[in-house]
Design goal:
The protein has ten helices and eleven strands. The protein is of the alpha/beta class. It folds into two domains: 29-113, Leucine Dehydrogenase, chain A, domain 1 (Rossmann fold), CATH 3.40.50; 140-263, NAD(P)-binding Rossmann-like Domain (Rossmann fold, 3-Layer(aba) Sandwich), CATH 3.40.50.720. A six-stranded parallel beta sheet has the order 1-11-8-7-5-6. A three-stranded parallel beta sheet has the order 3-2-4, with helices on both faces. Strands 9-10 form a two-stranded antiparallel sheet. β5 (160-164), α7 and β6 form a beta-alpha-beta unit.
Length: 282
Amino acid sequence: MAELLKGAAVVAAINEKMMADIAALKVKGISPTLAILRVGERDDDISYERGAMKRCDTVGVAVKNVILPSDVKQDVLMQSIETLNNDASVHGVLIFRPLPKQIDEEAVRKALKPAKDIDGITDGSLAGVFTGSGEGFAPCTAQACMEILDYYKVDCKGKRATVIGRSLVVGKPAAIMLLGKHATVTVCHTRTVDMPSVARNAEILIVAAGKANAVTKEYLAPGQIVVDVGINMTDEGKLCGDVKFGDAEPIVGAITPVPGGVGTVTTSVLVSHVVEAAKKLL
């Protein structure tokens, strides 16, 4: 039976460090503040917003909500971003995406200052991940995968690591971050030939396929460390990952559960980025 790499313990460790940092910042007159910029009333955005606000409240990070109507004009949205860029009291900005069809999303990404891009959506932040420059912040979900590996003392050095998925949100940055940990990395995608055999060869497997139960027993090997990024809803209304948990648990060495794994850690990473952005002012 596989060890469960639960997110709760990772969150507790991140929160403990954050709270110490926040206390030190407040002594110096700095109150870490997150601005949440939401366009429209999408249920998933509102749910994530509530979770982020709750996590901020837990550790003592202030939140400023900027809510715009779904039919907002591009210039109004851009002005809101510029205002947040120039607001010295705001240390990090979270912009919910996807944005409505009338909005040029690329222009929005380019408008946000990388120094305040705590969700890793700007070109500057992604360049920072790829070059190791430290500019901006890594996408939160990709970093959450690394936080889990670190907390459970998974040594990536020299290990064969495979990432299933090549998005800019998870797959590509996770692959680069694994390289930074000296793993030997393979990236699988929809054009990969015989993906199951490639995945089976991995000692560390990060799955961000975006499809429920896509990774089944033929992808898995004894002793593997599996990080399941997926969050999907079954026809029965239950949450499941991209990995078929019933297939994986008897085979692999360790696996993140869904729910209670990567998603749990992602919000804490987001808040920790706000605190790191505030620390950079010093």
